[in-house]
Amino acid sequence: MIFARHLGARVWILVAVLVAAAILVPAANLWLPASHPLHVPNYLVPLLGKYVCYALLALALDLVWGYVGILSLGHGAFFALGGYAMGMYLMRQIGGRGVYGNPLLPDFMVFLNWKELPWYWYGFDHFAFAALMVLLVPGLLAFVFGYFAFRSRVTGVYLSIITQAMTYALLLAFFRNDMGFGGNNGLTDFKDILGFPIAARSTRAALFAASCAALVAGVLVVGAVTRSKLGKLMIAVRDAESRTRFLGWRAEHVKLFAFTLSAVMAGVAGALYVPQVGIINPGEFAPVNSIEVVIWAAVGGRGTLLGPVIGALLVNWGKSYFTAAWPEGWLFMLGGLFVVVTLLLPRGIVGTFDHGWDALRLRRRARLAERGGSSGATDAVPNPAE
Amino acid sequence: MTMVEEASRQIRVLHEPQGYAPSLTSISLAGPDPAAGDPDAGENGWPPRPVVSPHPWATERAARLAAEGKGRRRRDTLLYLDGVTKSFDGFKAINNLSLVVERGEMRAIIGPNGAGKTTMMDIITGKTRPDKGEVFFGGDVDLTQHDEAEIAGMGIGRKFQKPTVFESHTVEDNLRLALSGSRSILRALFHRKDAPERQRIEEILALTRLEAKRKMLAADLSHGQKQWLEIGMLLAQDPELLLVDEPVAGMTDAETEETARLLRDISQKHSVVVVEHDMHFVRALGVKVTCLHEGSVLAEGPLDQVSADPRVVEVYLGR
Ligand SMILES: Nc1ncnc2c1ncn2[C@@H]1O[C@H](COP(=O)(O)OP(=O)(O)OP(=O)(O)O)[C@@H](O)[C@H]1O
Ligand SMILES: [Mg+2]
Question: What residues have their beta carbon closer than 5 A to ion ligand 2?
Fold first, then answer.
């Protein structure tokens, strides 16, 4: 795997910004007095943390959509599964402090008159186990789903449709009370995480910092993977799948690798999201959630590392702003945004910027060449996928 | 030994085809299956089919030996197609096609549009499964049982009719992805460029005259250069057999000549099947020619002989 210098200055700037945010936002919230102009109000910390989780989710989607060409409309499901795994840990942490005071059973189970904990809740009282499940459950689902879908060469719109069907099926399943995941209401009323009170300012600050760290890790992982020979192969599969097959590559394995890794990343994003918003319910499986993720990546620029992060932050900031200012209008705006981006900015913000930049450089180079400088008539045009 | 045993032994000997030692091969080649046809029987049914005793021992054995005999003829070939048929919605794109390419041979395939040339390559490379017929590589590998990636791994490389390269990669990266070697996904993830790899790429860049374009995106190459890049990728793969579909379409005369030279060079070390409409190019190759028409072989032989064949003139050259 190639690293460091191959990643490009821009990615390192993004990493630096995220690291700075991970330090400065908590500091400005905890240690600056409320009267200080740079003070970050309490409500903003988990909100920003939520955006960072969304950015990680968008990056995960970009790995499969932007680089391998798999338009998944079901990534919300992996996000929600990671969230549920974390939620189950948080539920078990409540212990005897629930409304019914049952030391073993979460409130909703007592309410349903259940006498014992279902087997699949075992182990979730340990953080390490829950953390493992955060990675394993979405990863395994993606692996099994991808194995069959890619082996039977389901592609394009058909694949998108079955990913939607997958998340919809999970939505219906998690709505059922007898599934044992809290049904309609989901999991909520969390008390603490790793022994720290979940609503405390310092815990929220730490969760924000952890989300930034996860996003940095995500950027570095996706950066390293896409810059490797395997990453080149991913783009090759995206652009000319059958060519890769006739060269002896197993396109389905390439897809399966990207899809599984992407699902694991989405699961991590969901796991960090849940303690910051304080609830996980089946609504997170709603098909429209997954479609929103696609819009974030499209707006920012798919096939780039920066694009999905910027897209997720911008669109969600817009969402928070407009749902307060003009609640009925948001969905129309989101749809309109998608249409505008598809028609006018098909490369997204970052992609369009890069493209304009390359065109400018080419023109400058051509001018230089005219003046007799032979510099780089054969030079590379920077890969737009970077 | 009792009399009865002795008698039954004799009967068995009589019925077993070894009993007819001199005609062993003709029995085995004829085979009892009339549908399979008798490749050795002449036009008027001469030499005549040897009579195979209707006894089950004899018919079974004859069938087995027939299959073995076919296998023996197959064994020395590189590519062996026999009785291959493929229809799309009832239309027979390939119709009882039989074709043999020897090891080390270069073969040119011509034929009108829709003759089934590309479909034949699809069948060989595992993209399309034939409805019936045999397709063997290297004498004993049944290609109908394998998929594209496996077949590529066995050493069959293919250039598409429409040049297909990885447009958003540089010329070098295109070659790097094609380079023979491990096809494991994890190895690709941790792959590092090394000196032998660089050298191989250098060689191929030189051979395909793309040295100056190495850092260019494949999308920015001219049509002819893309064709050459794709041939270069084929070479990088280092296959035993190259299937080259219309390599000079859209090339200038000079480029066409260069390509003929390149393919002749390649054929020193590889077997090549090349499909092309350009008769000057085919002439420049100077190899055995097969003319396909409506999914089967119309004529086969040296170019002069094939192009003089009135049927070929009528369906193809005469237009
Ligand atoms: N996948 C397919 N589905 C339906 N019909 C097909 C398919 N592939 C090929 N055909 C048909 O089979 C016939 C043979 O096509 P093929 O592409 O093999 O011809 P060709 O000899 O390569 O012609 P050309 O010189 O134009 O390339 C054509 O009539 C084509 O329409
Ligand atoms: Mg063709």
Answer: B 117-118, 161
